[in-house]
Amino acid sequence: MIDARQEAERVAELPTRVVALLNQKGGVGKTTSTVNLGAALADAGHRVLLVDLDPQGHLSLHLGIDGSTCGEGTYELLLDPAVSLAAAIQHARPNLDVVSATVDLAAAESELADADDRHGILARKFAEAFAGGARWDYILLDCPPSLGLLTLNALAFAREVIVPMQAHFLALQGLGRLLETVALVGHGVNPDLRVAGVLLCMHESQSSHGREVVAELKRFFNEARGSAVAWSDATVFLPAVRRNIKLAEAPSFGQTILEYAPTCPGAMDYRTLATRLVEDWRRRNAPARRSAPAREESARATHRRRKEVEATVEVIESGSPPVPAATVRNADGG
Ligand SMILES: Nc1ncnc2c1ncn2[C@@H]1O[C@H](COP(=O)(O)OP(=O)(O)O)[C@@H](O)[C@H]1O
Ligand SMILES: [Mg+2]
User: Fold this and answer.
1) Any idea what DSSP says for residue 203?
2) Distance from C-alpha of 216 to C-alpha of 229, rounded to nearest angstrom
3) 257-295: per-residue pLDDT in tens?
4) Exposed end of the chain (fewer CB within 10 Å): N or C?
5) pLDDT by residue (tens digit) across 27-84?
6) Residue with the nearest Cα to atom 24 of ligand 1?
7) Nearest ligand 1 atom, CA 201
8) Which ligand is nearest to the CA of 30?
9) Are 118 and 149 in contact (CB under 8 A)?
10) Is 55 helix (H, G, I), strand (E, B) or coil?
């Protein structure tokens, strides 16, 4: 069995996966998913940073952190050029760092309204930190329920968007608008931004309406395959996170689901999702492997070259004129 440290060493060379959990609607599972996916990734030995971009500060509270008593957080990071990322980070759990938020953050939108490059502040602070050697395997950004400046800062920095949502018809309507925003940001400030997919939260698999919505989502993403849109390789993440009261109780104890009820369905779902995210990231960053036909063609080419060399050696040794390579190929049936 691979222990957590070996696992972490194995992923050390992969680039950092930076994901914004985004939905302009509140109460869909963004914060719950950021905290518990982050906790499950950290528990598996990956170094994780969670950034609370919501003035409600729910992510911080969920982890038992009172943002108002612990110095610098997201507000200072965005507003004060002198505050570095390192100064704003708290070590919340083993492998799990946090930049926390307080209600002050609500003022950031108006206070930054006239600032230069106000969408790129977060990305810049991270670029400085990375240049100084900072490193995490996963950075998850918990976005507020709006498409304002805080969300734009998340989208200018992230490489991927995961959309937590419920499998309801109206949620599908909201998704269209959200994807348009992602596309706009993509064209404007962050051309590499991709929609990784939808994460179904509080899922009730028995509901036939839910199943229809999931089928609709899959059809929508399938239609986008091969096109130039930011969601052309998006997916509906599996497993869907089941509705589980333990997930709603854990924040009031300042605990992640792995601490509060480590064997409940919610904990299992987030652990499985974390494993999928890691496998998927490893696969996407694996050195390109050649397909079976390409490998066969390569083996045939090697065989032909060997025959050519043998033929040439024979010719040189016999003192006759060289045999054209084409003759060798034809004789070989290649
Ligand atoms: N799978 C789930 N089962 C039960 N309750 C959940 C689940 N996911 C989230 N919740 C609860 O639903 C509410 C909204 O979730 P939250 O993650 O805060 O949404 P958002 O960050 O999108 O506003 C919270 O009270 C949370 O505890
Ligand atoms: Mg939230």
Assistant:
1) B
2) 18
3) 999 999 999 999 999 999 999 999 999 998 776 667 776
4) N
5) 999 999 999 999 999 999 999 999 999 999 999 999 999 877 778 999 999 999 999 9
6) 248
7) 1
8) 1
9) yes
10) coil
Residue 237, number of CB atoms within 10 A of its CB: 21
> Rg of the chain's alpha carbons, rounded to an integer?
25
Residue carrying the six token digits 């729910």: 58
* Ligand 1, atom 20: closest residue by C-alpha: 27
**In this structure, is the dihedral angle defined by the CA atoms of residues 184, 190, 196 and 202, taken in order, positive or negative?**
negative
- Residue closest via CA to ligand 1's atom 23 equals 27
For the cut 60, the answer to whether the pLDDT of residue 1 exceeds it is: no
- 142 alpha carbon – ligand 2 mean position (Å): 7
Task: Read off the tokens for 7.
Answer: 């696992």
The ligand 1 atom at the shortest distance from the C-alpha of residue 28 is 22
DSSP annotation string for 12-50: TTSPPEEEEE--SSSSSSHHHHHHHHHHHHHHTT--EEE
Burial class (CB in 10 A: 0-12, 13-18, 19+), 124: middle
What is the largest distance, in Å, between two alpha-carbon atoms of the chain? 90
Q: Whose CA is nearest to atom 8 of ligand 1?
A: 29
User: Strand 138-142 relative to strand 89-93: parallel, antiparallel, unpaired?
Assistant: unpaired
**pLDDT reported for residue 18:** 98
